[in-house]
Amino acid sequence: MSGVAQSFLQRYGKPVMIGEFGTDWRGWNRTNDLYLRGWREGIWGGALGGSVGTAMSWYWEIIDSENDHPVY
Questions:
Q1: Phi-psi region of 46 (alpha: psi -120 to 50; beta: other; left: phi over 0)
Q2: pTM
Q3: What is the 3-state secondary structure (H, E, C) of 22-44?
Q4: 14-24 residue pLDDT tens
Q5: CA angle in degrees (0–180, nearest 5) for 9-14-18
């Protein structure tokens, strides 16, 4: 994700905002991503890779129900 932000910044001279992302089209999959690395990469890749903010996950309801907010 940071590569996308950097390429837009270089090409157009403006930062980009990644609105929403998901790590798996089938849904929130804790079994295959036990430590939520894909979600963390989406958040921090946008924030530290030249984007104007963090990307937002499609699965906000589950993040809320699992109380995963401290990751932010």
A1: alpha
A2: 0.65
A3: CCCCCCCCCCCCCCCHHHHHHHH
A4: 877 777 777 77
A5: 75
